[in-house]
Specification:
single chain, alpha+beta, six-stranded antiparallel beta sheet, 41 strands, about 25% helix, about 30% strand
């Protein structure tokens, strides 16, 4: 939310309060200020120019040579490439040695052989975003009003000497999404008075709204009130300069004098409105209802939308003409030919508005306010204010009366709280008078009964409904800095790390020792990503009031967040990316009011693992790189009987390079390569990931490591070469060897694998080194030979493997 300091100053007394002081005070009182920007800062020597003469450049088909009055004795010759430049217009001129946006210095020069003393500027060259520049000036220069005086700085004409305060509004403080709401907040902080502009509605006496339109709604729960006024005999034109500059500084593109009024009221009241061309409605009946499946509507962006029963629409009795609370229809928009305006002011169900905005990707300033809530007490006032303002700026007349579905009135919320409750919660010793003063500054009417306050909460603060909300309000206005601070009370006791804390510290040390960096990802993501890399998907945990679609659903896996980090780093040319993350996943189970949080461990590695050196080539990450890191970690933790079982169950993983990881019979996670198709969607290179249930790992980890004395007697090694079917896994072979190897077999090591045409179709050769040792006596060759023979026989019988 952008707030003009000059505009705010008209609504609340800000005498002796600078923009920076106001920003600091607001941040410390509950509404965070992101930044304070004065648009003219960094710009200099930019003045009003009066174009006296404009002729085509003799050596160019798109340049013009102008003679411009900049308030000096002689005219300045300036070569200009704007297609709309013409004589008789007041323009923005950057003089020689001036500075425009980006700290670019404008110098005297020549263009195609003609001297150019400065530059005629567009709004973008003064720092305005292209998204807020009026469309008629988007490809050219901006014209200043006729009353602008040549040679004067342009900043006051464009209100660039204003301070623009950027607020970060949390969902619970949607009342601050309007200038009136911000003014109430500032008035409470400084105990000042507010003063809001009003307009006396002047209605035609020869016409009645009943002759123009009637309105109705299908469900008053979804549309508590729908109001429509009609303004006739309007002339569509540019808005006055003050309104255009105000909207541009607030981040909104000026359109015309009717649409700009609806945006002005949106900013002032926080009340979204929509203006229809009355003559294009095709009916005198307006009905608000749910859309039907496959119903169509072309919205203002000229895109045809296929609707569903989840969408609330405005209709002309039969055909949709707008998406309620989100966007109007293209066929009924205000154009230069409009002579009669139908002005909509309404309340729409927040949930339906949010669903519609999300489903079509049409998040707007209007939908954002309907989703979070608006001040129900000023709906009628906003309707009258906007209708009269449109009439004044367009030369129109407001038709007598207003078509209303129902005159919705929301009563004040009553909350009682004792002085003792406030002081006990805040640790303060406030008096009845001090708390009463705070409630007065907030504009909350209240009565006192002994030491109990009965507080009436106005509709503009719909975030307050319980005692705790009032305690927070008192704390904010009293000042968090003024609350007393105390040290915790109680006797100190000796403490130590829990088993899980020790295990997690071991994990961090091990992984960081292997070259991985810890990442901390957002727990919230899109609904689509939230359930990726999950075998048993549960119901998602979605926020009721998310800040954005990107951060709306709690994750069920850590991997998607790590892959976004991988993509971010690879986009910035980092050739080696290795991350791990320890964090919670969130799953919703039937019958549980709260989601289940489970601690997980995930890793992601990609790119070059060992860089090229003078004596060795570069080595890229592969499956065994990550597998080695995982095996080393499990060795550090003392996990035994760890198995890697091939798996094709994970849709986002490569079906031939993925394994489930088991400890005994317990599945603790998975490891493998991200599926190439999914990697392409995430815009990442070949990447390997793993994820484990950290709580399961902690349970399986031994409390203390077990140490054994090093064997006194020599070991015997035997190599065994095998020819097997390619489909037989090494783990199956190792299982047979362990089963028949006896108690003296202490190690099995695969040291060679070969496949080729010489071996035959679908065959492979494997070579294992077997180590035998008896810690109580010296082994003899005969004992080892007999065991190796048993192993060979079992391999041939159970797996049809040839011992070579």
């Amino acid at each position: 939310m952008l707030v003009s300091y000059k505009w705010l100053k008209k609504l609340v007394d800000l005498e002796n309060i600078t923009p920076d002081e106001l920003a600091d005070k607001m941040s410390r009182s509950g509404i965070e200020v992101e930044d304070v920007v004065i648009p003219e800062e960094g710009l200099k020597k930019i003045v009003v120019g009066d174009v006296k003469e404009c002729v085509p450049h003799p050596d160019s088909d798109h340049l013009s040579i102008t003679q411009v009055d900049v308030g000096e004795e002689e005219l300045y010759q300036i070569v200009c490439g704007a297609p709309n430049i013409q004589a008789g217009k007041k323009v923005i001129v950057a003089l020689p040695n001036s500075r425009i946006t980006g700290n670019v210095k404008i110098k005297k020069g020549k263009m195609r052989g003609e001297v150019s003393l400065g530059m005629i500027c567009s709004l973008e060259e003064l720092g305005y975003s292209n998204s807020v520049v009026p469309k008629e000036y988007a490809d050219g220069i901006y014209f200043l009003p006729e009353m602008a005086i040549p040679g004067e700085p342009v900043f006051s004409y464009l209100e660039m000497d204003d301070a623009i305060i950027e607020l970060s509004i949390t969902p619970n403080r949607a009342d601050a999404l309007s200038l009136r709401g911000v003014a109430h907040e500032v008035a409470a902080i400084y105990d000042r008075k507010t003063s809001f502009p009003t307009k006396e509605l002047v209605e035609a006496t020869d016409d009645s709204i009943n002759d123009y339109v009637s309105v109705s709604v299908a469900d008053e729960k979804e549309v508590p009130t729908y109001r429509m006024r009609v303004i006739k005999d309007v002339t569509i034109q540019e808005s006055p300069m003050w309104l255009q500059t105000l909207l541009m500084n607030e981040g909104i593109r000026p359109i015309n004098n009717v649409v700009d009024v609806t945006n002005y009221v949106l900013l002032l009241f926080g009340q979204p409105q929509h203006a229809f061309d009355y003559d294009k409605l095709g009916s005198k009946e307006i009905k608000v209802r749910r859309a039907t499946n496959e119903e169509k509507l072309v919205t203002l962006d000229e895109v045809e939308r296929e609707l569903s029963t989840e969408n609330l629409v405005i209709t002309n009795g039969s055909t949709p003409i707008a998406l309620a609370g989100v966007m109007g229809g293209f066929d009924s928009e205000i154009t230069e030919t409009t002579t009669t305006v139908a002005l909509e002011t309404a309340l729409f169900d927040p949930t339906l508005t949010r669903r519609t905005a999300r489903s079509f990707g049409l998040a707007s300033e209007s939908s954002k306010r309907f989703e979070r809530g608006i001040n129900t007490a000023t709906v009628a006032e906003a309707s009258n204010f906007a209708a009269q303002m449109i009439a004044e700026l367009s030369g129109g007349i407001v038709v007598k009366g207003e078509a209303i579905s129902s005159d919705y009135q929301k009563e004040d919320v009553i909350v009682s709280i004792t002085l003792n409750k406030i002081n006990r919660s805040l640790g303060t010793e406030l008096s009845l008078e001090e708390v009463s003063t705070i409630f007065n500054s907030l504009g909350f009417e209240h009565t006192k009964e002994n030491e109990t306050f009965v507080v009436s909460i106005p509709p503009r603060r719909w975030d307050i409904s319980i005692e705790a909300d009032l305690v927070e309000e008192v704390a904010r206005i009293y000042g968090y800095d003024n609350l007393p601070s105390t040290l915790p009370k109680g006797s100190s006791v000796a403490g130590k790390l829990s088993k899980n804390q020790r295990v997690i510290r071991q994990i961090r040390r091990s992984l960081e020792g292997k070259g991985l960096n810890e990442a901390i990802s957002y727990m919230l993501m899109t609904p689509e990503l939230a359930t990726k890399f999950v075998l048993d998907k549960q119901d998602v945990v979605a926020l009721d009031l998310p800040m954005s679609e990107e951060r709306s659903t709690a994750r069920q896996s850590l991997v998607p967040g790590l892959l976004k980090n991988v993509a971010y780093n690879q986009a910035r040319k980092h050739s080696r990316v290795a991350f791990y993350e320890v964090g919670n996943i969130f799953e919703s189970f039937e019958g549980q009011s709260l989601p289940t949080e489970t601690n997980h461990l995930a890793m992601a590695v990609s790119g070059v693992w060992n860089a090229k050196t003078w004596d060795s080539p570069a080595k890229n990450v592969d499956f065994y790189t990550l597998k080695g890191i995982v095996e080393n970690l499990f060795n550090v933790l003392g996990l035994e009987d760890v198995l890697f079982v091939p798996s094709k169950a994970y849709a986002e993983m490569h079906p031939g390079r993925t394994a489930q990881v088991k400890v005994g019979e317990t599945v603790i996670g998975f490891i493998g390569q991200v599926h190439p198709q999914f990697a392409k969607e995430m815009e990442i290179q070949e990447t390997y990931v793993c994820e484990f249930d950290l709580e399961a790992i902690c349970d399986l980890t031994k409390e203390e490591p077990t140490y054994k004395e090093i064997g006194k007697y020599p070991s015997i090694k035997r190599d065994i070469a095998l020819l097997s079917d390619a489909a037989i896994s090494s783990q199956e072979i190792v299982d047979v060897i362990q089963d028949k190897g006896g108690k003296h077999l202490v190690d099995i090591h695969l040291f060679d694998v070969f496949q080729g045409e010489k071996l035959g179709h679908n065959k492979k050769s494997l070579a294992y080194s077997l180590t035998f040792r008896n810690d109580e006596a010296t082994l003899v060759d005969e004992d080892v030979t007999s065991v190796v023979e048993k192993i060979s026989a079992a391999l041939a019988e159970e797996l049809n493997i040839e011992v070579r």
